[in-house]
Amino acid sequence: MTKQSLTCSANTLRHADLTTRVEAAAEAGFDGIGLRLSDYLGAEMPDGQIRDLLDQHGIRVLELEHLWDWAQGEDPAEAAMFTFADRIGARHINVPMFFTHSLPDLVAPFAALCDRAAEHGLLIGFEFLPYSHVRTIGEAWQVVADAGRPNGGITLDLWHWFRSGARPRDLTDVPASAIITLQMCDVLAEPGPDMTEEARHRRLLPGQGAGDTLGVLRALREHGVSAPASVEVFSDDLDAQPATQAARLAFESGVTVLDRAGVTAPPWATTLAEAR
After folding, report:
1. Which of 35, 41, 119, 212 is the most exposed place for a label (fewest CB within 10 A)?
2. Whole-model pTM?
3. pLDDT (tens digit, 9 = 90+) per residue, 102-128?
4. 273 found inside a domain
5. pLDDT computed for residue 86 by the predictor
6. By residue range, what is the domain housing residue 202?
């Protein structure tokens, strides 16, 4: 296997406590993890202790996840994420939009969110989801482009790519640099009746489903995309495995598809990279 810089996203080990998550990810070969805000607050550990845990295992935090109506302005969850970035370090925050707003009405709030995040050295990745109010990569790019912030971009999740019906040609108008992170997983051959339920419970490991994973990865490479990669598999089946086994399966599947596609996941820095 090629040496790849891979992150274990928050929802791949979603039921593991923070210590177990870090230890399992490191043992599997990951050098990064993702966290939901609840993972941070629920750990009930001092920030210094969390930093020591991460440092001990050579793990950094790539992404923070939380759902809130950021179009309404600042949110208490946002402040907690900024505190995490300042004290522990992260690279970016992923934000979808589950509340009803027109695309033009999202531009100014997205720009304002990016500006607030920039004060803490964070990127913001707008994640399109086919069951949300920003359903396609084209819609996400419309908001990001109109906002025009250097730390604003797109989070590209392969499950959402496949289920939104995206094709490589949809990358044409999206600059390669606008895709700030890639989340890898795969899909069942037939969509379920409830897209939200499927997305949160029945994803497959990268390269082990019906999606043209290699084709998408190669298209991204040819488009010039070089973004940090993570494995994000919401799966009840994976949840049933011990954390160490789930992490190993996730890492091996992620490295395998990247290698087969001829893609190298690049290294990345957190907000506290220089300090650490």
Report:
1. 119
2. 0.97
3. 999 999 999 999 999 999 999 999 999
4. no
5. 97
6. 6-261
